[in-house]
Amino acid sequence: MSEQSAMALGLQGCPICTKVGPVECTSCEICGARLHAGWSNSIQRTWAWLITSVVLYLPANFLPIMYTRFLGKETENTILGGVVSLWTHGSYPIAIIIFVASVFVPLGKILVLGWLCLSIQLGSTFAVTQKTKLYRVTEFVGRWSMIDVFVVGILVALIQLGNVMSILPGMAALAFAAMVVTTMLAAIVFDPRLLWMSAEWDDLK
Amino acid sequence: MTNTPARVGRGPRFSGIWFVPIIAVLVGIWMVYTHWASQGPLIEITFVTGEGIEAGKTKVKRKNVEVGEVLDLRLARDAEHVVLSVRIEKHEAHLLSEDTKFWVVRPRVGKGGISGLNTILSGAFIELSPGTAEQSARSFEGLESPPVTPIGTPGLHVTLDSDGDRALNEGDPILFHGMEVGTIEYVHFNSKERRTYYNAFVAAPFDRLITTNTRFWFSSGMSVDMSADGVRVELAPLSNLIAGGVSFGVPDGQPHGDRITKRAFFLIYPRESAIYEKQYAHALRFVILFDDSIRGLKPGAPVEYRGIKVGQVIRTDIDHGEIENLLEPTSRIPVVIEVVPGRLGFADTESAVEEVDTRMNTLIANGLRGGLATGNLLTGQKYVELQYNDSIPGAPQTFGDYTVIPSIGGQLGQLLASIERTLATVNKLPLDQVMDSARSALDEVAGTLAELRKSATELEQILADPASHEMVETLNTTLTSFQDLAVDFSEGSLTHRELQQSLISLEQTLQELEPVLRNLKQKPNSLIFGGGRDKDVEPKGVRE
Questions:
Q1: In whole angstroms, what is the distance from residue A120 CA to residue B527 CA?
Q2: β-sheet bridge partners, residue B190
Q3: What's the maximum distance between 2 C-alpha atoms anywhere in chain B?
Q4: N or C terminus of chain A: which is more exposed, having fewer CB within 10 Å?
Q5: Confidence label for A1 from pLDDT (cuts 50, 70 and 90)
Q6: pLDDT tens digits, B78-110
Q7: Distances in Å between the alpha carbon of B515 and those of B23, B503, B505, B527?
Q8: Where are the domains of chain A?
Q9: Contact (Cβ atoms closer than 8 angstroms) between residue B244 and residue B168
Q10: Are A26 and B20 inside 8 Å of each other by CB?
Q11: Chain A closest CA to B179's CA: distance in Å?
């Protein structure tokens, strides 16, 4: 099967029901969803969300994600600080899980999406299939990076014993959740079809 | 569903979605800016120890409100101190002035009680006490212990000094009538002057109790004072017994004086009774040379003149150049005394000293002598008494630099002398004659007594005789009949009435007889010759 984009054949797929129709249609013949090629918008939007997530990534990692008050003594915990302290205490599996879910995955998502956008903009045709697969993995894995926010939410809800022991959420939890949401949005607005059309980028531009 | 043809063309150059990152960046920038802008000054505090202080955790508090945080903790270059980098919150930066104090609040057990217990759980924190100075500072030296009195507390700072053996500690109480009204804040020993200076603070409203006539004294736990006046035992409240302290007050009978508002200096008297002893600047010294033992006389013992303290004993040692040794038969014990003109009623001035000196010399020539007297029989404390004794001649001499007040024997010697004199008088009495006459008198008395005894024996015999018994019985009977008779004649009885009538008629008869009797009296012969009226007798006057 020769690699040929739908656009080149004058076709487009519905993003909702995947019906393939002529490119001239503005709405899907089956489900009525609005059809658009939206190429330039997609890249722009992806970039916008990506930049937002990068901006949010900084406070998410540098501000404390939660405050632990134990016997009147308050300590701040950042995500990386938690990973380090877990690691030094020998809880390697948990440290790895948190590191992967909270640091590696979001950062990886941002880098992958950024790379994909760049490669489209540069008109690269290198390993388009692998890129598409990478995008799918990225989109799938994104929702799981909320694990840290879940942990903080549960701890805050459960441990409220006043001065004896209580856990309070920090600004980073908010920033982190917003970052996860923005990376997911970036992944959604990214149109993988553009990977296949990058060869025709110049025309579309 | 109608399909309209798709619009083919370029999308908008900038999607509206770009607002999201722009807002995110702006918010980020704003947050960074506010964080940076709200960041207060970074200060350095030096402490001797970093015990309990943790970088990033230890807070700086003022009245339990957080005003800053320790960012960093490191050793000073000399490795003797620790230096804390502390970020003070911006809106509290005005608290940082030159005299702002910092100290670490840890659990402490002191004389004043236990403090900082809450820090056992929460960990130590640094307390800030704002200063009053205008000049702000960024580098501070932390205090090792909390300041006794926070800066700016209304009240009065006074400086007390003492050269006595007693010492006070920081935090010791200042008492007024036994009530704690202030504390000793700072103790400084001046090794040059050999005096201890205390900075004390009396809190408002008690600071108005400190007036120009106020005296401070050591309120000891217990003091036993054995002086010429007897034994005194003073006991203070229990807390003072442990901690000691300083009391103050105005001596009884003195005006309070003006209130003191600025830092003032006060001397701490060794005991309360000492505040009544007025302090005099001028005194004269004399020496008394004693032949007798001066046991019981100590420096500080009073010198009295007619019972009033006029000075005190200064020295009783023999370390004078004028005395070689005590074994010389002529050696006498020199006692240096001090006579205070102020106590004699003179002014406390240099000129009064000269005047008193002149007059004392005159008095010495006229017979002023110094003698030892026992003040306290129990302890044998002695004092020096100045008195007149013309019988001992003496002109003023000098001993070293001092004028000598001639001595007379002590009280005991004087007592012995007077007993001797009395005995001599007694000796001179014609005792033999007295004794003789007394003896004869006694003999007479003895004779009289013997006779008396004889009479008594006879009387006894008479009484023992049975005849006397009969006589008594007869007497009894007689008395009974007499009693019956008396009843007969008693008022209202027949006999009594008759007697009364007889008496009345007798009286009438007598009245009738009266003119006759008078006539008879004037002219006894009228009974025979009949009565005629007499001529009035005319007095014989001088013939004309």
A1: 204
A2: B195
A3: 213
A4: N
A5: very low
A6: 888 889 898 888 888 888 888 888 888 888 776
A7: 168, 20, 17, 13
A8: 1-37, 40-204
A9: yes
A10: no
A11: 38
B169: CB partners within 8 A, 6+ apart: B111, B184, B187, B243, B244
Whether residue B121 and residue A56 make contact (CB cut-off 8 A), yes or no, is no
Cα–Cα distance between A176 and A79 in angstroms, integer?
10
Nearest residue of A to residue B22, measured between CA atoms: A52
- Amino acid type, B298: K
B282 contact partners, CB below 8 Å, separation of at least 6: B340, B341, B342, B348, B349, B350, B352, B353
Helix, strand or coil for residue B29?
Answer: helix
Tell me which residue in A26, A44, A56 faces B17 most closely, judged by beta carbons: A44
Q: Is A203 on the interface with B (CB under 8 A)?
A: no
pLDDT in tens, B480-524: 998 888 877 776 777 888 888 999 999 999 898 888 888 878 877
Quick one: which H or E segment has residue B226? strand B222-227
Predicted-complex ipTM score: 0.73
- Tell me if B20 and A23 make a contact (CB, 8 A cut-off): no
Q: How confident is the model at residue B449 (pLDDT cuts 50, 70, 90)?
A: very high
For A43, name the nearest residue in chain B, comparing CA atoms only: B15
Asked if A49's CB is within 8 angstroms of B21's CB, the reply is: yes
- With a CB-CB cutoff of 8 Å, which residues 32-71 of chain A face chain B? 32, 35, 37-41, 44-45, 48-49, 51-52, 55-56, 58-59, 71
Query: What is the CATH T-level fold of the domain A40-204, as seen in this structure?
Result: Butyryl-CoA Dehydrogenase, subunit A; domain 3 (1.20.140)
Q: How many whole angstroms from its chain centre is CA B60?
A: 50
Between B95 and B321, the higher pLDDT residue: B95
Within 8 A of A40 by CB-CB distance, chain B residues are 10-11
